[in-house]
Amino acid sequence: MAYKSDEVTDLQGFFADLVRCETRLYNALNDRLRERHGIVTSQFEFLRFLREHPGARVADLAAEFAIGAGATSKSADRLEKRGWIVRQTNPADRRSSLLALTDEGSRLLHAAEATFTAGLSELVEGALDQSTTAAAARALRRLRSALERDQVGTPTG
Question: Across residues 80-109, what is the average pLDDT?
Answer without folding.
Answer: 93
